[in-house]
C-alpha cells in the first residue's frame, strides 16, 4: 500500500541534500568542510529583539492563541514600517497579514489564488519555493526568464501571448536570490503594468529588502501608483534581523487576496506565538541601526571575496544587496561539475546555479554566511585550486 500522495511523491528531490550527505562523509574523514551553501545569516539576532521576547514571554496574556491574522502590535508595526521606509500607506486591519515566515506565506498564497491547472509565471533562476508551491497547488509553472545581460530583469517579451493571458499570478524577487541582482524602480513599473494588462496578481518576494549595501535602497513594488489593485508583497525578518529560526514574516497589499489568504490560513494554522510577533514589531519599528551593522559586515565579506575571485579570473558582479555572490563557472565546466569539484578538491560547499532553475546553468551561488577569517581560508583554497588547473 502506498500512503503518499502523487503530489509529494512527484516533488523533485532537493539537489542540496546530496551535498549535505557528502559533507558528512568528508567530515567523518577529517576534512574541514566550509559550507557556503546555506542561505541563512550566521550572525545572532540583535540583543534588543531577544530582550523584548524575554519580556513578552513573561506576560500570561501572550500565552494564548494569537488572533488569526496576527496581533495588532505586529500588524501596526508592519504598516508603520511601510509608511516610514516606502511612503506606502497600509491599513493594518485589511492590508497586512502575519506569516509564519515568508516561505509558509508563498506556499499558502499560491493555494489561495490559483485553481488546479492555472498557470503561474516563475522567475528562472529563482527561489525554488515558488515552483514547488505551484506544483503542490496543482498549478502549472511557466518559466519567466531573467536577463543576465540586463541585471537579471524579467524578460516579459519571452512570455507567449497565450501564457500571459492564461497566467493567474507572477512571482518576482528583488534583491534577488540567487543572482544577488537588485531592481531599479523601472522593473516594478514594467512588471505592474504587464500584470495589469493581463489581469495577473504580482507577488513580490521582498525577503532581502533591507539587506542592501552602500547608498542603494531597494524599492517596494507597492510604490507603483495603483499597485494595490494587483500586487501583494511578502516580507520577512529572517535575513534583515538574523531571525531565520523565529519564523516571522508578513504579506501586504491587495486586500481581497490578503483576506483570502487569511481565510485559508485560518483553517491551517493559528498564527505565530505572540511574544515572537511583539519582538518582531519592536524590530520593525526600531531605527534599523542593527540592520545597518549587519549589512556592513556582509559588505566587508563581499568586498573581500569579490576582489579575490576577480583576481583569480572569475566573473562576478559586485552585489548591492543579499547575502550572495553569483559567480560564473570556469569555461568547460557545468554548475554541478564545478560545485562538485569545489567540494571534492577544496572542501568548499557552494550551490550549483541549476538548483534554482535551468537558467542557473553556468553559475554557482556563494553564500557569505561565514566570518572573515573563514573567507580567508576559502580564498587560500581557491588559489591552490587555481594553480592545480
Ligand atoms: C530566505 C528566503 C525566503 C524565506 O524566508 P522565511 O521568511 O525565513 O521563510 C523567502 N524568499 C527568498 C527569496 C529567500 O531567500
Automatic annotation (TrEMBL):
One of its GO terms (molecular function) is transaminase activity. The keyword Transferase applies. It comes from the Bacteria. InterPro entries: Aminotransferase_I/II_large, LL-DAP_aminotransferase, NHTrfase_class1_PyrdxlP-BS, PyrdxlP-dep_Trfase, PyrdxlP-dep_Trfase_major, PyrdxlP-dep_Trfase_small. The keyword Transferase applies. Gene3D superfamilies: Aspartate Aminotransferase, domain 1, Type I PLP-dependent aspartate aminotransferase-like (Major domain). Keywords: Aminotransferase, Transferase. Pfam families: Aminotran_1_2. Its cofactor is pyridoxal 5'-phosphate. Residues 32-382 form the Aminotransferase class I/classII large domain. Its EC number is 2.6.1.-. PANTHER family: AMINO ACID AMINOTRANSFERASE, L-GLUTAMINE--4-(METHYLSULFANYL)-2-OXOBUTANOATE AMINOTRANSFERASE. Belongs to the class-I pyridoxal-phosphate-dependent aminotransferase family. This is Aminotransferase. It comes from Virgibacillus chiguensis. The lineage of its organism: Bacteria, Bacillati, Bacillota, Bacilli, Bacillales.
